[in-house]
Amino acid sequence: MTMIVRTEDVLGGSPRIADTRVGVLHVYELVVDGDHEPVDVADQLDISLGAVYTALAYYHEHPAEMRTFRQERDTAETTLAEQSLSPPEPAT
Question: Can you give the C-alpha Rg of the chain in angstroms?
Answer without folding.
Answer: 16
